[in-house]
């Protein structure tokens, strides 16, 4: 590249070639070694976020809520509420191969965590400080849920409501916290998992999948059902690790990944002890979900491949202004929806099924299909005030970055996970276990805070 230096005004330029001086070429930013091409962020979204991951999380969470609200088959008689599952009829279990989207949530969470951790590392934020900020955003919204549900069964029973429906609702409100218990652990391990991914790549999820194979072999050949829960440490981290792989570089041949995952799941269901449904069904001897099985891992791989294959369509859909506004609005409310959507179900069930004595029609029939939109509308109306009241807990007040050590934040993660597991196992049924769970959760929060006051609004990783 050259530049022409003009002659001073008023002088006659000789008939010679213009004087040229070589200029340095503009610096070209180095191309990253790997990484998914970021989508155009939604209005108001944090720069550097991957729009595909945001849309995937939103769609997966919407499917979780829709499935939980649509599955129950409820009736009330003689002071007891009876429950069934609409997806247990006929071949409806096939729907669960798409609607059971917890694998996609772990995948998207892994990708978002890796992207966020990379941004924080480039800003010089220490790994424990990043973990502390993430844990605070995960754990703090559970506090109001516990504060409402711990005394609520006592109040309802004292008011004379039937005992069985009250205790069932109290258990149901805490059961879904299993996801947070596992997710808190993988978030705390994210700095280590990112280093393992950088060093070993796909060998990490492959090793975790091999662990799931061993666990299922022992579980089904020796008849040791309790061994199956070891797969919580293999299946979900393996899928989470695939999210880290996506953040490091988008996999090729996604259709092949989808076919391999779904094909392996079909083979396992056809030849092994695995049921066809990817959610627990009433009366089923084996559940693919609790504990997670190799078949569920295979379906998760198939879902990830399918999502990656449809990525261009998802990106085009996400760039519509209306979708961008929905993404911006839901970004700070998604955890609240997850935590409280079953409480909304309990409220509507108490009014419609217990109070008015209206039972769920035969699933799939004309009455069920015509009443389903009205049922969903009632649930949305019940969730809305809960969302207005408790979404603020997803946006903690600004705090100085965490300055404690790794051991302290590891203890916080362990206490939080233990408290969430107690809520999962016992719900909020009156007794000592939920109180212990609440105590563990409250003990975890101060460990993840810094003692120094906040002097400014730091860039908290999302």
From TrEMBL:
The chain crosses the membrane at residues 97-117, 138-156, 176-194, 201-222, 228-248, 255-274, 294-317, 338-360, 372-390, 410-429. One of its GO terms (molecular function) is acyltransferase activity. Residues 1-46 are annotated as: Disordered. Residues 21-41 have a biased composition (Pro residues). Keywords: Acyltransferase, Membrane, Transferase, Transmembrane, Transmembrane helix. InterPro entries: Acyl_transf_3_dom. Residues 51-384 form the Acyltransferase domain. Residues 11-20 have a biased composition (Low complexity). This is Acyltransferase. It comes from Streptosporangium pseudovulgare. The lineage of its organism: Bacteria, Bacillati, Actinomycetota, Actinomycetes, Streptosporangiales.
């Amino acid at each position: 590249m050259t530049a022409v230096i003009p002659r001073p005004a008023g002088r006659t330029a000789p008939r010679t070639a213009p004087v040229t001086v070589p200029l340095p070429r503009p610096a070209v930013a180095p191309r990253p070694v790997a990484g998914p091409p970021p989508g155009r962020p939604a209005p108001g979204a944090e720069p550097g976020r991957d729009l595909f991951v945001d849309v995937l999380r939103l769609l997966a969470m919407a499917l979780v809520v829709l499935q939980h609200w649509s599955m129950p088959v409820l009736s009330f008689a003689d002071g007891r509420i009876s429950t069934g599952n609409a997806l247990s009829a006929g071949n409806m279990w096939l729907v669960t191969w798409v609607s059971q989207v917890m694998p996609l949530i772990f995948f998207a969470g892994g990708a978002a965590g890796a992207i966020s951790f990379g941004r924080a590392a480039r800003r010089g934020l220490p790994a424990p400080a990043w973990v502390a900020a993430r844990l605070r955003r995960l754990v703090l919204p559970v506090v109001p849920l516990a504060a409402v549900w711990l005394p609520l069964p006592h109040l309802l029973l004292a008011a004379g409501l039937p005992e069985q429906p009250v205790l069932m609702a109290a258990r149901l409100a805490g059961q879904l916290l299993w996801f947070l218990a596992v997710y808190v652990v993988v978030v705390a391990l994210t700095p280590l998992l990112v280093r393992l991914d950088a060093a070993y790549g796909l060998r990490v999820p492959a090793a975790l999948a091999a662990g799931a194979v061993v666990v299922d072999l022992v579980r089904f050949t020796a008849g040791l059902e309790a061994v199956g829960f070891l797969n919580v440490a293999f299946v979900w981290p393996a899928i989470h690790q695939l999210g880290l792989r996506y953040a490091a570089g988008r996999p090729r041949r996604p259709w092949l990944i989808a076919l391999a995952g779904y094909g392996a799941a079909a083979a396992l269901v056809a030849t092994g002890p695995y049921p066809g449904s990817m959610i627990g069904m009433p009366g089923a001897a084996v559940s693919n979900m609790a504990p997670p099985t190799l078949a569920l891992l295979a379906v998760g791989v198939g879902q990830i491949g399918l999502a990656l294959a449809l990525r261009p369509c998802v990106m085009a859909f996400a760039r519509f202004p209306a979708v961008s506004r929905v993404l911006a609005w839901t970004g700070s409310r998604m955890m609240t929806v997850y935590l409280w959507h079953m409480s909304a179900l309990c409220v509507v069930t108490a009014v419609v099924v217990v109070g008015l004595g209206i039972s769920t029609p035969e699933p799939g029939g004309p009455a069920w299909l015509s009443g389903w939109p009205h049922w969903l509308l009632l649930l949305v109306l019940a969730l809305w005030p809960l969302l207005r009241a408790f979404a603020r807990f997803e946006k903690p007040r600004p705090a100085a970055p965490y300055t404690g050590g790794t051991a302290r934040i590891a203890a916080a993660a362990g206490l939080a996970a233990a408290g969430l597991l107690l809520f999962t196992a016992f719900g909020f049924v009156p007794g000592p276990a939920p109180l212990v769970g609440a105590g563990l959760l409250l003990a975890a929060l101060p460990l993840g805070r810094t003692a120094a006051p906040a002097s400014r609004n730091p860039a908290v990783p999302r």
